[in-house]
Amino acid sequence: MSLLDRRSFLKTSTAVVGGLTVGTFLRQVSAQPKVVTIRTGFTLAPEHPVGQALRRWGDNLTKRTNGAYIVQVHGGGVLGSSRTASEAVSMGTLESYWLDPAECASFNQALNVLSAPYIWSSPKVLQKATQDPSIVEPLYAPVIKKGIRALALGYGGTRHLTTKNVAAKKPEDLKGLKIRIPDIPVFRDMVNSWGATPTPIPFVDLFTSLQSGIVDAQENPYPQILSNRFYEVQKYLIHTGHVMQSISIIFSEQIFQQQPKDAQKIMAETAQEATDWFLSYLTAEEGKMLEQLKANGMIVIEPDVKAFRDAMGKVYEKYDPIWTKQLREKLQSYKA
After folding, report:
1. Which entry of 117, 240, 257, 271 is 20 to 30 Å from 317 by CA?
2. Burial class, 162, CB count within 10 angstroms (exposed 0-12 / middle 13-18 / buried 19+)
3. 134 Cβ partners below 8 Å, 6+ apart?
4. Could you give the C-alpha distances from 71 to 61, 82, 211, 267, in angstroms and in order?
5. Would the CA dihedral through 76, 140, 60, 94 be positive or negative?
6. ∠ CA 292-301-124 to the nearest 5 degrees?
């Protein structure tokens, strides 16, 4: 075919792609909704069940939006520490992250109450209360103004103390010990109230810090102790149960507001479903995790929990003006 023939052919012929004219095909391609990629992550070990919860969120979100949204899950602090990630979410340079609400306390110090010591009577109570608008909305109103939305909240595990050499049964037994804590003010004051030395260390550095003796002890829920093999460098598991930890899936408010209203609703619903699943998973598996920790050589100590709880008096006195005594007592007496 000559060049002239080709030109004539292109001018006079109707090219068909998949049964559609070229013009119709191109219009349909350009009309296809853009797939939105959501990056989310967490600081815990990649194999931690948090990863399962976030992938569950992603799978359900993708399914319910017919593929319009994809969630990429990154464990092990790949997207940063909780502090740097929350700052990135606030600025809109990161879409989402899984963290303790207290790790957003720089935006509102009252958020410390959701993971404060000896606040919750049970995981189910925590799960219900953190979905109560009368509790959540006032706490997060200042946080939303700073660019962070909590898509969902829920139970993240019960924190217990572990030590290398001290089978502590009361707070006085911890005197002089360096206890690793997350960089959360209320945790610092809690450990101080026990007479120990609080030492903030990023979670990703915790194992080596315990191994090298930078710190003597740490406190975390069973899944963290197990998945990070802390039983290799800690001997005693002390059932203080000092914090029933809240968790949140946070999202950039800037990016959230750019999404259609129906997509916003589905994001929140699927995120909450993921945290509800996490509650069910933990409550079903915590007993098995404890047995695994024992099998790996940890010695379980049943301490005087009342003594540890009573030591919180000064902590409450310090923070009640911030989160209000009324709110603290409401949470402590909340019913499932």
Report:
1. 240
2. buried
3. none
4. 8, 18, 35, 11
5. negative
6. 70
